[in-house]
Design a protein that fits this description.
- The protein is of the alpha+beta class.
- It has one domain: ACT domain (Alpha-Beta Plaits, 2-Layer Sandwich).
- It has two helices and five strands.
- Strands 1, 2, 3, 4 and 5 form a five-stranded antiparallel beta sheet that branches.
- The radius of gyration is 12 Å and the shape is globular.
- The chain starts with a strand and ends with a strand.
């Protein structure tokens, strides 16, 4: 099972939710996966508490295949632990 939850909000919007170690490189790596596709996230929320980083990234304009691929790539980032 992937450690990143990709919630389809509508036909063109995806929300990725994951928990990771509170390391400085986790969030920039996650956002870079979106930026490499020429997109700007519609919404980003990150909360760091007790050594853990909870992240939600909402992206518009991804095809289903691309959304799935980004989710798999997010789950492979070092420090990403689980869905919430």
């Amino acid at each position: 099972m992937s450690s990143v939850l990709a919630l389809k909000r509508n036909s063109t919007t995806v929300r990725y939710c994951f928990e990771a170690d509170a390391e400085p490189g986790v969030l920039p790596r996650a956002l870079d996966l979106i930026a490499k596709r020429g997109l700007v996230p519609a919404r980003v929320f990150a909360l760091s508490e007790a050594g853990s980083l909870s992240v939600e990234i909402e992206v518009e304009g991804l095809s289903e295949d691309t959304a799935e691929h980004v989710g798999l790539c997010l789950s492979q980032i070092v420090g990403v632990r689980q869905t919430f």
